[in-house]
Amino acid sequence: MGSSDKNIAAQTDISLVGEAVSSTTYDEVFLSTTSGYCIFDEHQNLQAFSSDFPLLYPTISDKIEIGMSYTAYMKVFYDNAAVRNMGKAETLDEWIKGAMTVFEQKGARHTHHLHDGRWMQINMSHTTTGHWLFVAMDITQYRDSQIALEEQHKRYRSFSHLAMDWFWELDRDLCFVYHSGHQSSLTGVDHEQLVGRSRIDVVTASVESSDALLCHNESLRRHEPFDLVLAWRNVDGSVRHVNVIGKPEFDKFGKFTGYLGCGREVTQEIQLQSKLNHLAQHDDLTGLVNRRAFESALSSILDQTAKRETQATLCFI
User: Fold this and answer.
1) Helix (H, G, I), strand (E, B) or coil at 316
2) Integer angstrom CA distances of residue 41 from 12, 48, 72, 76
């Protein structure tokens, strides 16, 4: 291992275990594990590059020359559109000025979209010898997987928004850290202003008192899942019913970290069910209780009298 290699290892707290090998071996390993690299000296002039490095940029492969300055290199890079994602700049000077800021850092990372479709991650590091090392690593597979995952998440969010009206997330203190904004919140509070507020306090102030509300609050305190319907009061006195679902989250050690939840308004469904129940037990013409409802009520009363050993009277007019 050369002196420069030892200095780099010492700087990064990395040391070699075992017998050192020749620098040629290190060069071969480095060349075989990268997609290309180039080195600029302390004066920002191109000192060396691997033979496969120019192949990454076919439009400038015959223009890369040893000794050329980084400014000249980037000018060639810009004039020949070496990559697809060149970035935006009004003038060449402005673009080069932005590119030169890389030398103000000890390390940097850029992503190049090559014309053959591949994606390269360019890692720049400033060595202890004063050189600037640019290494290209092929991340095409990772990039494709990332894009596919983002598409899946986008599709999932679209389906979720079709199925649910609200999504929310709570921290371990049961306070909002997120509330979706694709539907207006029934709380009367803007979804962004809900962040940091207790869900129990917000819901209790907006929902009619009921067993469902008590179950909702107790489930949150006990870190238990819930799936129930709450009745929200509107300013005009009307009521909107919402199916609320909450799922507690825990880390790998079993420690409670918060909640993920969603809600969907079911007012129309409940009103329709109530109407159907009424029609099933009442005559359409007179609105009076029908035979089915009468027999159901009579059966219920007979059961009660039998269990409690009481009497009941049926009056027939």
Assistant:
1) coil
2) 21, 9, 14, 19
Q: Which two tokens stand for residue 185?
A: 């919140």
Beta carbons of 257 and 174 less than 8 angstroms apart = no
Counted residue by residue, the chain has a size of 317
pTM of the model: 0.50
Tell me if 262 sits within 8 A of 236, measured CB to CB: no
Q: Tell me the per-residue pLDDT of 118-132, one tens digit each, with 9 for 90 and over.
A: 999 999 999 888 899
Beta strands in 102-204 (DSSP E): 107-113, 119-126, 132-138, 166-170, 176-179
Determine the pLDDT at residue 1. 44
The Cα-based distances of 18 to 7, 21, 32, 151 in angstroms read 18, 9, 22, 47
CA 266-267-269 angle, to 5 degrees, is 65
User: In 68-175, which ranges are E strands?
Assistant: 107-113, 119-126, 132-138, 166-170
288 — phi, psi (to 5°)? -85, 160
DSSP string, 223-253: T--EEEEEEEEPTTS-EEEEEEEEEEEE-TT
Structure tokens given for 290: 């029908």
